[in-house]
Amino acid sequence: MGVKTLRVAGFWAVLLLMTSCGTAPKGRATSTTPTPQKSEQTTWDVDLSRSELGSILEFLASDLLEGRAPGTRGSRVAEEYIKSLFKLWQIPSAVPGDYLQPFDLNGFSARDLELDVGGVTLHFSKDAMGAVLSGEPNPAVEAEAVFVGFGITTPLWNWDDFKDVDVKDKIIITRLNDPGLFLPDVFEEKVLTYFGRWTYHVEEAIRRGARGILIIHTDETAGYTWNVVDNSWSGEKVRLDEQVNNNLKLRAWVKEKSLERALAARGIDLDELYEASLRRDFRPVELGFKIRAKSTLTSRRFQTNNVVAMIPGQSEKQIVLSSHIDHLGIGKNKEGDNIFNGAIDNGSALASMMLVAKHLKEKQKDLYYTYVFLACNAEEGGLLGSKYYVSQADKSKIIANINFESTPVWEKAGSLMGVGARFSTFEDLLRKVAARQGLEYSEFSLSDQGLFYRSDQFPFAAADIPAVWVSAGEDDASGQRKYTAFWSGDYHTVDDEYDPSWELEAMEQTIRATLGLLQLIDEGRLEPSWKDNLTFPITQK
Ligand SMILES: [Zn+2]
Q1: Bridge partner list, 323
Q2: Average pLDDT of the segment spanning 47-60
Q3: DSSP readout, 117-129?
Q4: Cys-Cys crosslink for 171: which of 126, 143, 314, 442, Cβ 3.0 to 4.6 Å?
């Protein structure tokens, strides 16, 4: 599991004995000894003007950047802008290519899918969504169908749906989510785990050499409606080479009702399959018929870039701060405003990271660790830029990742949150920072939706690097919950637009909290470590 020992226990004992955390003069006592410092009275406080907070965000969210989809002109402008800010603040490049780390993407735009499930035709968009991923214009596959239950194998909850059954070259039909949604005492009950996400199901199908996967959609198991599936496949899907150079060709979703109808025509009862799938002794079921699929799609290969800078400290050990540049681009079939500006997702977050960089640069002479700033690309396509970065990095040097995602832009929050902090000593550190800054520490109420696995901290975590998404909380001083409302409102719509009336106080809190966290780690020479409660596998060392 890669669970490390709690190296900071002694330090925490010292901190717990100290009761006062009042305000203190700026700056810190310098020391050359490698032992933790008791400098908790100092603070890396900074002046942040409102125009400074708003300017980067406003530019990133402007219509001229056309929604910053990877491989577009708007994306290139955003990359150059970020690079220019690093240069302006004299923060050097961390990669050979003058701040730009290029990587290849494979883009697929599906226009039709002919799907035959045991002799019953299912229709594109109405019954099923997806594609046979290939560089050809009309790729087709045909293979035996196997129902694999939830399609999950993990020692964490001693759950194995596949047993010794070989599904190589088969098309697997899988339930979404995990058994915890239906059963007590397995997985994290109603909390969506890593194993419940569709991305895991696809990765497991690839590992097992399957020819295709049909993911059964229900509102309950997906946590979103069929419309979301339909919309997300109506634009271009992007993938890294490693994700498409394998045996898995058909990748599609099917509506539960449509699948039920197709199975019934063969005398198979979907409810009975579901019932069996809730048992630990479940084994994959050969359905005795073939699935045939033929796609109409266009594909292209193109390059995009991460933008990477660093502030070197005394040590070569690195803390990587990350935040994604990209958003959803321009909606093709929409009338009126069709630009997905992504002001909050992820303009405010990227602006927050950039301002942390700017102000950390002012402390460079005091820094122990080296700080890398990763403005990554193609997050919306499945965390692709951060995945690529992690795959190329010297991971032995990276001790932690701090990510910024959709940073709140409204009034002051009463709390600080760390998505995924509970898995590591980051939670203890953030509680300490919150207390110092007069804030509560809280869990994000939407964490149940698997948010830790859904932004750029996750590729770091999966590579055994303690990681966290830091943010001001959702409890606005006025008692409103604008941030919570954002996630079920403007999130991933064309209405995620810059509003000059935003207070930007929560963004300021996020920046201050991050600087406070970095100060605590840097002065203490701490290395965040995992706790023994990980609910995801370490897949890359
Ligand atoms: Zn985002």
Answers
A1: 375, 404
A2: 94
A3: ETTEEE-BTTTEE
A4: 143
Domains along the chain?
38-92+312-524 (3.40.630.10), 106-299 (3.50.30.30)
CA of 349 to the centre of ligand 1 (A): 8
Q: If you measure from the C-alpha of residue 323 to the centroid of ligand 1, how many angstroms do you get, rounded to a whole number?
A: 8
Residue 374 near residue 308 (C-beta atoms within 8 A)? yes
Mean pLDDT of the chain: 90
Tell how far the Cα of 370 is from the centroid of ligand 1, in angstroms: 25
Segment 248-252 mean pLDDT = 96
Q: Which helix (H) or strand (E) holds 353?
A: helix 349-361
Q: How far is CA 419 from CA 14, 446, 459, 511, in A?
A: 26, 9, 14, 16
CA of 454 to the centre of ligand 1 (A): 8
Residue tagged 């799907």 (tokens): 115
**239 forms bridges with which residues in the sheet?**
106
Using the mean position of ligand 1's atoms as its centre, give its distance from the Cα of residue 402 in Å: 14
DSSP 71-110: TSHHHHHHHHHHHHHHHHTT--BSSTTTTEEEEEEEEEEE
Angle between helices 505-524 and 50-60 in degrees, nearest 10: 100
| Residue 225 reports pLDDT greater than 50 | yes
Ligand 1 mean position, distance from CA 9 (Å): 34
Q: Ligand 1 centroid to 17 CA: how many Å? A: 39
> pLDDT tens, 398-437?
999 999 999 999 999 999 999 999 999 999 999 999 999 9
- Cα 328 to ligand 1 centre (Å): 10
pLDDT tens track for 133-164: 987 878 999 999 999 999 999 999 999 999 99
